[in-house]
């Protein structure tokens, strides 16, 4: 979660002054050394991803789901999604008071150069500093009409090619994930009682599970990305569904669920990280009853077998394709 201190540079060299008055907004807040320069009592952070949100909230920052208005300073950290970044920039700019300062910080791999070019088409950029394979640039809000306001629409859910509601920056926003598609046929008629979908995304797997299993009484869609969960609420209208914004790997053990379904995430940065999926398996084992069942799909190259064997008494590989493998595990080891 550690970040470079690129963002500190324009504040430390005097190019931008931290306003002595007025509120400060940080969009897509990260763990960032520059925040030591910000007055905590006047700073509001936005962060959609629950684990990062929870980490920063523990360090005393105030969080909101809305950008608010009239800020003296707004900071946007780029993510990997171009359209989500544009929406964050447009929303942060809109939330500034006239003469407020917008600061945008990002790595080259997150497209900071192309965002700079795109912003320059609309507004003069006051300054930019390159450091640590990225850039920080800033501009001042004018009282002219805001020409890039249209960018903010990317965070409004729209229907994708498969007819599901999605928005910029969430997992598999343009189409149904192929891994979830491979798991669905294994679920029909197999689930009953109370269960959870760990990492439910915009809800495809959960919606299919509910449709194919009338014996489900409740299915909790557990998802860390608030935007994905917002879309899941539009896609999964079955009244047996509930929705929880949290970290699926940090749930307390309760041994109460009849089943868990999951298509776990396999990276947080660009690199595949099997440890993430392994934590999902551990979590499933802790949540399930002694008779509980886990249905899971994973990328074929990721090694989950040892973790499944360590956590469950019975593990079966249901199918394997060129890209994915589906597992059925039961009887969690307590
Ligand atoms: C491979 S996707 C599966 C999405 C969904 N089940 C589907 O069928 O499309 C994994 C999901 O896990 C979410 N995720 C990542 N880390 C998480 C965490 N710690 N807790 C809960 N969800 C998480 C991601 O945001 C993503 O939506």
Secondary structure elements and pairings:
Blueprint: H1 9-12, E1 24-27, E2 43-46, H2 50-58, E3 62-63, E4 71-77, H3 82-94, E5 96-107, H4 112-120, E6 127-131, E7 134-140, E8 158-159, E9 165-166, H5 178-183, E10 193-198, H6 204-212, E11 216-223, H7 226-235, E12 241-245, E13 257-262, H8 274-287, E14 288-299, H9 305-311, E15 312-320, E16 324-332
Parallel strand pairs: 1-2, 1-4, 2-3, 4-5, 10-11, 10-13, 11-12, 13-14
Antiparallel strand pairs: 5-7, 6-7, 8-9, 14-16, 15-16
This protein binds S-adenosylmethionine.
Supply the key terms.
24% helix; 7-stranded mixed beta sheet; alpha/beta; 334 residues; 2 domains; Rossmann fold; binds S-adenosylmethionine
Short note summarizing the structure:
The protein has 334 residues and is of the alpha/beta class. It is 24% helix and 30% strand. The protein has a seven-stranded mixed beta sheet, with helices on one face. A seven-stranded mixed beta sheet has the order 12-11-10-13-14-16-15.
């Amino acid at each position: 979660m550690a970040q470079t201190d690129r963002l500190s540079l324009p504040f430390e060299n005097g190019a931008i002054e931290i306003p002595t008055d007025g509120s400060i907004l940080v969009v897509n807040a990260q763990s960032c050394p520059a925040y030591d320069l910000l007055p905590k009592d006047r700073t509001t952070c936005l962060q959609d991803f629950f684990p990062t949100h929870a980490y920063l909230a523990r360090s005393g920052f105030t969080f909101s789901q809305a950008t608010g208005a009239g800020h003296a300073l707004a900071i946007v950290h780029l993510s990997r999604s171009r359209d989500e970044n544009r929406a964050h920039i447009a929303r942060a700019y809109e939330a500034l008071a006239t003469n407020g300062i917008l600061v945008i910080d990002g790595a080259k791999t997150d497209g900071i150069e192309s965002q700079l070019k795109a912003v320059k088409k609309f507004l003069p950029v006051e300054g930019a500093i390159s450091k640590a394979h990225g850039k920080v640039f800033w501009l001042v809000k004018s009282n002219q009409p805001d020409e890039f306001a249209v960018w903010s629409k990317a965070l409004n859910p729209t229907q994708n090619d498969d007819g599901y509601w999605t928005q910029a920056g969430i997992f598999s926003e343009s189409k149904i994930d192929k891994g979830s598609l491979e798991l669905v046929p294994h679920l029909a008629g197999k689930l009953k009682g109370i269960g959870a979908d760990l990492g439910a995304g915009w809800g495809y797997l959960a919606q299919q599970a509910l449709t194919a299993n009338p014996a489900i009484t409740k299915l909790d869609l557990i998802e860390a990305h608030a935007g994905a969960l917002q879309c899941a609420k539009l896609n999964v209208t079955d009244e047996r569904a509930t929705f929880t914004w949290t970290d699926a790997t940090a749930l307390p053990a309760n041994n109460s669920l009849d089943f868990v379904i999951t298509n776990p995430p396999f990276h947080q940065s660009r690199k595949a990280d099997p440890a993430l999926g392994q934590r999902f398996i551990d979590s499933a084992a802790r949540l399930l009853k002694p008779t509980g069942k886990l249905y899971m799909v994973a990328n074929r190259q990721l090694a989950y077998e040892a973790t499944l064997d360590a956590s469950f008494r019975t593990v079966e590989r249901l199918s394997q394709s060129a890209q994915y493998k589906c597992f059925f595990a039961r009887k969690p080891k307590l």
